[in-house]
Each structure stands twice: as C-alpha cells, then as structure tokens.
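hi! just following up on the protien thing from before. the input was this:
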Amino acid sequence: MEWFGRGGPVMPILLLVGLALYGLLAHRILQPSAREQDPTVIRALISAAPLLGLLGTVTGIVGSFEAMMVQGDARAMSAGIAEALTTTQYGLALAAPALLLERLLGRRRPTAVAPEHGAASVVTADRAQPGPAAVGAGSWVAPPGADVASGNPSGR
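and the predicted 3d structure came back as:
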C-alpha cells in the first residue's frame, strides 16, 4: 500500500480506470457474445491510462519544484519524483497488457462470408466489407462479374 500512496492523488483514478478496463476485458473473455460488442469503451480506457500516468508525472514534478523552492531539501524533492515515476509506471502497466489483450480478442472474432457476394462481403476482425445487408453511404460491393481475387474489381 505504501507504493500506491506514493503515487499521489492520481492513483485512485488510475485504480478505477484499471478496474473498469480489466472488468470489461474479463467480460469479453468469459462471455462469447460480448466479443461482438463495440470495443470503443475499452480502447478509450486503454488510452486514458497512460495519459493519467502522465498527469501524475506532471503533478509529481510540480511537487518536486515546490519542495525545492520552499525547503531546498533533496529529500523533499525526491517524494515528488517518486510520485511522478510511480504514476507513469502504473499507467503504462495498465495500458500495455490491456492493449495486447484487446487486440488478441479482436482478432478472435469469427469471420463470415456471404456466399452470394464472395470476397466482397468478408467480415474480418479489423474491418467489414459490406454485403447486401449493409450497403449504404460509403460502402462498396463488387459489381456483378467482378473478379476481386485477381485484383480486377471493375468486372471488365
């Protein structure tokens, strides 16, 4: 607990972000239907963790300079540096494994091919190329007779 306390006022926020992040990741692992949900919240929490660590870094460095100005003591200054490094470490330690796990979970999503459209409607873990049900603004479906596999999408 001493290590957590050295992180200063940003540490409780980082703890909450970490609990939410890994709770959502555990839910996606344990519930197969949850893997199909939009990972936007998880990605936002992954992005927030190192930024909160950076906020703690700035807070700790400011504390170090204040201690140096008021007390002129290296010992008082070292507490601010410890706060800065602790929050940075914690933010990165939360984000890095979560990012890897989220990417692995994203790749495990099933792929599907609509038989009537072949390669033009393949749904992968990273992006979807729409078939007939998803055609709309900004979407693309190969024209009839197109040979998508050979790189001739025009069908000519």
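Residues 125-129, 131-137 have pLDDT under 50 and may be disordered.
The chain is about 60% helix and 0% strand.
cheers
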